[in-house]
Design goal:
Elements: E1 14-16, E2 21-25, E3 30-35, E4 38-42, H1 44-52, H2 59-70, H3 74-90, E5 94-96
Antiparallel strand pairs: 1-5, 2-3, 3-4
């Protein structure tokens, strides 16, 4: 684990870091997250999570919204959201608001 990585919890509020953009890659037919000198291919679930990282809602609020929208267990969604956000944080693609 990266010692410099922020602690991620359900109360974390994050948004994409400056210079990180969500873009469609027409050549590959998929959505990618672009950052300076790096890119990350995303599936539909990852795209939904990235789009929800608005810098206003906490990860718990996002998980609650997804649980209602997809009629899925909130605990499982919360774990998946936090795991993905942790991966983005390790890649320095996020800015933590709280």
């Amino acid at each position: 684990m990266n010692a410099d990585a922020p602690v991620i919890s359900g109360s974390s509020v994050v948004k994409l870091a400056q210079g990180v953009r969500l873009r469609e890659d027409p050549v590959r037919g998929q959505t990618v997250l672009l950052a300076p000198e790096r890119a990350m291919a995303l599936d539909d679930i990852a795209v939904a999570i990235v789009e929800a990282l608005d810098g206003e809602r906490s990860l718990d609020q996002i998980a609650d919204d997804f649980a209602q929208k997809f009629e899925a267990p909130v605990a499982q969604i919360a774990e998946d959201v936090k795991a993905f956000v942790h991966e983005l944080a390790n890649r320095r693609m996020l800015e933590f608001i709280e």
